[in-house]
Design goal:
Length: 398
């Protein structure tokens, strides 16, 4: 009886949080919109990856973004406060940013870059079969991690560990301090397209064109769980939510799925799935991301050149951002501010930046305001998604 009362109390709390969040969203949804900044970055070839630096690594109110290209180049962009506040008036007066740092050393195209959450280090994965670690201040290559037998397609890092995935179907764990490979996981039967650490670095998520998402214990190399969607569509991206309780995965059936992370249950039911005619994802590895500074909603690229924002709870498209002239494979959201970055393929080759403009002209997020509230809203959104999933399992309409 006590357990039932506790469960009812928890459900009531989640419902209350959800109602409060939905009221706030409804108040703002009609007028809140992301707008393009008046500046952009550019590359010589298709943009393959964009990543905001963790806010703890940036000085003052500056924002750093790393982008990578099929031309083997890596560029670091610095968005000052003045730049963030300047919206696009018209295309004729837009300004090309000059990168603050460029990292050169890969012999072939770079597929992904990622920041270390606690140090000014960038990791990159390349078609030259290597992973490199870079000093952001100087652009110097500090180490080259060799061992994969085919293209290295994805990379992530957490404190002193690096994880990489390759077209050789393996996942490797590396010690950042020594550059040694400490473990090779025979992870998949097709190219590995995504790797992601959870927030404390104890678990790694891997995804592949074999249609599987797998969770691994970093300490033992044990596969803790395997997840797959009906029909086994190839998985192109998978990452942990900011609170570490969910996985966001994109597949080549133009669907994004939100999976609860639990290694104790054998359930294969996802909490939510997101799709629309504006979101096309059938050929390339399109990335999706959470937007912590915007109610925890979801942003994704699309092969029609759009950037699509989904409401995490209602599953509806909240906004479609236009500005690229080719497919958008790379997107990223800032960990605290309501800022987005996106990268276009060969006919575009630009890195675009977007900020949230509210009806009242409130620039709280752009000015680095109440980030605790943003994190609270994000957790509440995810809890509400989980609550909806529980209702679905009981036969209730979502």
């Amino acid at each position: 009886m006590a357990n039932i009362e506790a469960i009812n109390s928890e459900n009531a709390t989640i419902s209350r949080k959800r109602s409060q969040l939905e009221e706030k969203c409804l108040e703002r949804v009609a007028t809140d919109e992301f707008v393009r900044l008046n500046v952009f970055g550019d590359h010589e070839r298709a943009v393959s990856s964009v990543k905001f630096a963790p806010s703890r690594l940036c000085q003052g109110s500056s924002v750093m973004v790393a982008s990578a290209s099929a031309s083997s180049s890596i560029k670091i962009w610095n968005l000052s406060q003045d730049v963030v506040l300047e919206e696009t008036l018209d295309d004729t007066h837009r300004k090309a940013l000059t990168p603050t740092t460029q990292c050169r050393g890969h012999a072939r195209g770079v597929n992904e870059v990622c920041w270390n959450p606690y140090a000014a280090l960038l990791a990159s994965a390349s078609d030259d079969k290597t992973v490199r670690i870079w000093d952001i201040a100087t652009g110097e290559s500090l180490s080259e991690l060799k061992g994969h037998e085919n293209f290295v397609f994805c990379v992530d890092q957490q404190q002193t560990m690096v994880v990489s995935g390759s077209f050789d179907e393996t996942v490797k764990l590396w010690d950042l301090r020594t550059g040694d490979c400490v473990c090779t996981l025979p992870a998949h039967s097709e190219p590995v397209t995504s790797v992601s650490f959870n927030r404390d670095g104890t678990c790694v998520c891997t995804a592949s064109h074999d249609g599987l998402i797998r969770l691994w214990d970093v300490a033992t190399g044990e596969c803790l769980k395997t997840i797959f969607a009906a029909g086994n569509p190839p998985v192109c991206s998978a990452k942990f939510s900011p609170n570490g309780k969910f996985l966001l995965a994109g597949t080549l059936d133009s669907v994004i799925r939100l999976w609860p992370v639990t290694t104790t249950s054998k359930s294969q039911s996802c909490s939510k799935s997101y799709s629309s005619f504006e979101h096309i994802h059938t050929k390339y590895s399109v990335v999706s991301d959470f937007i912590p500074g915007y109610h925890g909603n979801i942003v994704t690229g699309s092969e029609n050149g759009s950037v699509v924002i989904y409401d995490i709870q209602s599953k509806q498209v909240r906004q479609v951002l236009k500005g690229h002239k080719d497919s958008v494979l790379a997107v990223s959201a800032h960990d605290k501010l309501s800022l987005l970055a996106s990268g276009g393929m060969m006919a575009d080759r630009k890195v675009e930046f977007w900020k949230l403009r509210t009806s009242s002209g409130d620039r709280r997020d752009a000015d680095g305001g109440d980030t605790d509230m943003a994190n609270t809203e994000n957790d509440a959104s995810l809890e509400a998604a989980a609550s909806d999933s529980n209702k679905k399992h009981k036969g209730e309409e979502l």
